[in-house]
User: Fold these one by one.
Assistant:
Number 1:
Amino acid sequence: MYRFGVFGAALGGALIIAAGAAAHAEMSPAVALTSHGQLFTLAVPTEKESATTTKVELTPPDGFAIDSFVPSPGWTRNVKSTGSGEQTKIEQVTWSGGHTPTEEDAVFQFLASADSSKTYSFKVRQTYSDGSVVDWSGAESSDTPAPQVEFKSSLGGGGSNTLAIVALVVGVVALVVAFITLFAGGGRRAVA
């Protein structure tokens, strides 16, 4: 029983840390390839009790180009842009009319790319049904950090597959050792 208690405590601690880390506006993936179009997701949490998220404004940084959007049912999208055709630059996107309740995330997706290998910070402004506003544009250590995506020219060229295989093997070995320890030691201890 002691082993299950330790496992439960470790799992509970990991979940608490993960829940705390997820309580910010986030862009995913957090790491992407430069000059490659891909799908990005903006998730904005509704943290305020007795209020819903009714509007989200995204201001992308210079060098980050949004190409198109995935529909967001229940939300109306307004786009401010300059230029036309291939030269269109989206300066701000506002989603409004939705009602995301407490402890849920307003989620928006779009295809985009970046032209430089660096970390891009996004300004996000969240409006609640009671009129209060949260500006997700602070430093990484603040209560309202700006969502970020790190763009790289290469993600290791196949190294990620090797790393995934090593992680899988280590995980399987750890599970086998845990089961052997759990079941082999189960008959030795007297229950009081």
Number 2:
Amino acid sequence: MGAAEAFDREVRLFVYRHFVDEGEPPTAAQVADRLGKSTEDVEASFRRLEAAHVLVFAPGTLNIWMANPLCAFPTTFRVTTERGSWWGTCVWDAFGIPAMLDEDAAIATSCPDCSEPMEFRLEGGSLTVDDGVAHFAVPARRWWDNIGYT
């Protein structure tokens, strides 16, 4: 592993740990301060991680919008575990949060057709309900064409 790859891994791990522990992503300055690196080095790492589809930034900034499956801004998917609560960008990411944390979870959302509240529960890595339909309007192979929309 090269120096840039090793640094990007360190940045990525810090971003995820901070996001989970604090409920929000760190800034480049926070990462730089914690890792003892320059903000410019962290910003370069952020850009490499964006190119690798690890991070997504708010348009025109280096402010982390998504570190999939976590989202920095409110969505219609709120995931709660014993450890805390986070926003999932989509239902796919909402299920990814408890998988990432290896924890049981409740996912609060609403029906996209009728707006009725819905809750999904994951226990022991399995979904507790056995009915329902998930609809993905955009094929998975096209998600990164416009990840903020899909």
Number 3:
Amino acid sequence: MKIQYSKQAVKFLSKQDKLTQNRIINAINNLPNGDVLKLQGRLGYRLRVGSFRIIFDKSGNVLYIIEIDNRGQVYK
């Protein structure tokens, strides 16, 4: 499965410390395992990694990471 990151997701990851980066990247690589729910009211799914939320969409063999942010900010 190919994983593509949006510009916002790459920017958010680059601002985090190495431990947090590794936790998020490992969780993305282990999809579809993890705390995944389908979003209501918009397209895509969310993955929970601690207090971070990863919004992603899957089409065919490509997993597109739309947004990564803190729990309170990602849904706005």
